[in-house]
Specification:
The complex is a heterodimer of chains A (111) and B (115).
Chain A (H helix, E strand, L loop, with lengths): L3 E4 L2 E5 L4 E7 L6 E7 L5 E8 L4 E4 L2 E6 L4 E6 L8 E8 L5 E3 L3 E6 L1
Chain B lengths: L4 E3 L2 E4 L5 E6 L6 E7 L5 E8 L2 E4 L8 E4 L6 E5 L8 E8 L9 E2 L3 E5 L1
Classes of the chains: A mainly beta (111), B mainly beta (115).
Amino acid sequence: KQEVTQIPAALSVPEGENLVLNCSFTDSAIYNLQWFRQDPGKGLTSLLLIQSSQREQTSGRLNASLDKSSGRSTLYIAASQPGDSATYLCAAYSGTYKYIFGTGTRLKVLA
Amino acid sequence: NAGVMQNPRHLVRRRGQEARLRCSPMKGHSHVYWYRQLPEEGLKFMVYLQKENIIDESGMPKERFSAEFPKEGPSILRIQQVVRGDSAAYFCASSIAQGALHEQYFGPGTRLTVT
């Protein structure tokens, strides 16, 4: 049974710092790993989707990597800004049409 | 092309009432998924539907919860005799087909509060 864990649960950093959010999954037989952003009381915004054949994806200041053998994915945010403050969720897709979500990392970037 | 639409966005019900949550998938999408997010938790899969068929309802509580996706109209998640523990955000997602290559697109969610 796939389980997804995100560490840390919460993170507070000063503006301008580079930071890494971690996501680990127990079953390496995944098709995709997707990172989402969720603002308080809002829906999900897809940030990056990494297919199993890929090792990383980049979009602007965001870079996500995937290491299936170790069951890990990281989301790297460069030069963080207060507008990056949100909860970041990772979700593993194992081909059974269910996304298995982690509990998220609540990020606060201080001005 | 409008994204996945859900209504209402916020719903308040008293204990024992019924809650009906609606989801209109993206245009051309015939696969719908419902997820529930309890406070301070990640989203958890509830049910997967195709037009007029429930494919997998393994994540949905057996009692009081039901879902449908009729030939015409939105998908409906129905909760009968709501209890305080049903308070959560309910998200709907849709895809054009099922499988690894077909990303699920999420709606804005319906936040249900049971008083």
